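Q: How would the C-alpha cells look for this protein?
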Amino acid sequence: MAGIVECHRIEPKSGIFCLSSDMWGKALLQGLLSGWKPAGALRAPGIEGKAWSESDLPCGYGCEEFYLGKVMTDEDAIGLADGLRSYLERLFHFYGDRERALKEWRHVRPGLLLKEGMDADLLIDANRSWSIEFIESFSEFLRGGGFVFYWDD
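A: Here is the predicted structure in C-alpha cell form.
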C-alpha cells in the first residue's frame, strides 16, 4: 500500500519535505547501497507506545509505527544525503555529465497520492518520481539535519 512520508524539521529549525513511501524506500535503499551506515531511527519525543522489536533494528526506518513518529538524527540525515550524492556522482559519470543524465535518464512515476488538507506544494512533493531532481531536492533537505517523520496512508 502506497502512503506518504511527512518529514518535519525539529525545532528550532523549520521545514517540511513530503514524499511517497515508494520514494522513501528507494532513497533508503540507494543510500545503503552507496555506503550509508545509519545508526537508526529514534522514537519521536513524547510518543507513547510499545517497545520496538528486534526486527526494527538497526535501522528502524521502515513503516512500522510510522504513524507514531520517528526521528532521523542529524548524523543519519547527512549520511543519507552523502550516500545519495555518491549515487548521483556515479550516475553523472555514467552519462558523462548532469545535463545529459537529465535528458536521458528514465524513471517511473508512482500513482497519484492525495490526502485531506494537502496544499498544491505538498501534492507536488508527495507525487515526485525517482529522478535526479528528486534526489537533489531530498538531499538538500537531508543536509539540514535531523527531522521527525510520519507515515500517512
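The chain is about 40% helix and 15% strand.

The longest strand covers residues 4-9.

Upvote if useful.
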